[in-house]
UniProtKB/TrEMBL annotation:
Binds 1 zinc ion per subunit. Keywords: Cell membrane, Hydrolase, Membrane, Metal-binding, Metalloprotease, Protease, Transmembrane, Transmembrane helix, Zinc. This is Protease HtpX homolog. Belongs to the peptidase M48B family. It is found in: Cell membrane. Pfam families: Peptidase_M48 (PF01435). The active site is at residue 143.
């Protein structure tokens, strides 16, 4: 597929390939362990694993968009939003994605899609109400860079594999233990061992996706700032959104928190250990990078 004018990021490409390889290897081993431990249930295990992976690859973007309340809008309904996306896509020389709005006061944006032809970019009503046009373009350029770099598709698949570990374990236990029942003296051991293995697989895949997520957000900030030539506008949007988050009711932030890995800014950010598990770099890290880009462009 043709490239765009977004600055390529070899570090991101390497990290995406490494993350998918390690997670793929992890799941090959995981499925092998389940098949070995639950010999009578291997057809069910492979069927669940294959079916869920294919479903996630083809429908994961739609599921994510629906879960986050995105509704596609026309240029007549949201002329400012469509106009900004049109300008950025022309500047980046990339196909225009579908454009959507989510009815939420939490100021945020996200992109989904397994490739550029099936991409969707969404902004919340809270974001549209609070940002100036230049700030909005900075945020949208950030989201479009996720589509251009294809990391949004990698994150969609990689994030799902952790959930798949739990589904496969339950399916394997249900199918395998039904066959061995009380006649097998190892049943009690399997009931304890398999959930532990599943939890370990989930933890490793979670840490891998979090490390990739933090890097990809910095990469998207950098690509957006260089494409628009206005890193200060993106920095202003980041500062404004972070400040506005403190005014949003905690209940609303909690509802948005499960989708942090997809959002432009985290609904809730942590301190200490939680920061190590965060899907995003800190605000200070993002602003510092944008400041350095401004200096390099001679804008500061």
């Amino acid at each position: 597929m043709q490239s765009t004018r977004f600055v390529p990021d070899r570090g991101l490409t390497t990290r995406m390939a490494g993350t998918m390889f390690l997670i793929g290897l992890l799941y090959v081993v995981f499925v092998g362990v389940l098949v070995a431990l639950l010999r009578g249930a291997w057809p069910l295990i492979l069927l669940v694993a294959g079916g869920m992976f294919v479903a996630q690859f083809w429908f994961g973007d739609r599921i994510a968009a629906f879960a986050m309340g995105a509704r596609e809008v026309t240029p007549e309904q949201e002329p400012e939003l469509h106009g900004a996306v049109d300008r950025l896509c022309a500047l980046a020389d990339m196909p225009k994605p579908r454009v959507a709005v989510a009815d939420s006061d939490v100021p945020n944006a996200f992109a989904t899609g397994r490739d550029r032809r099936n991409a969707l970019v969404c902004a919340t009503t809270g974001l549209l109400r609070r940002l100036e046009p230049e700030e909005l373009e900075g945020v949208l350029a950030h989201e479009l860079s996720h589509v251009a770099h294809r990391d949004v598709a990698v994150m969609t698949v990689a994030s799902f594999l952790g959930v798949l570990a739990g589904i496969m374990t339950r399916a394997g236990l249900w199918g395998g233990l039904r066959r061995v029942g009380d006649r097998d003296s190892n049943t009690a051991v399997l009931v304890v061992l398999i959930p532990l293995v599943s939890a370990l697989v989930y933890a490793i895949s979670f840490l891998l996706t979090r490390m990739l997520s933090r890097y990809r957000e910095l990469s998207a900030d950098r690509a957006a700032a260089l494409l628009t030539g206005r890193p200060s506008a993106l920095a202003s949007a980041l500062t404004k959104i972070s400040g506005e988050m403190a005014r949003i009711p905690t209940r609303d932030l909690r509802q948005a928190e499960p989708f942090n890995a997809f959002y432009f800014a985290p609904a809730l950010s942590g301190e200490g250990l939680n920061r190590l598990l965060s899907s995003h770099p800190t605000l200070e890290q993002r602003l510092d990078q944008l400041g350095r880009i401004s200096a390099r462009l001679g804008l500061a």
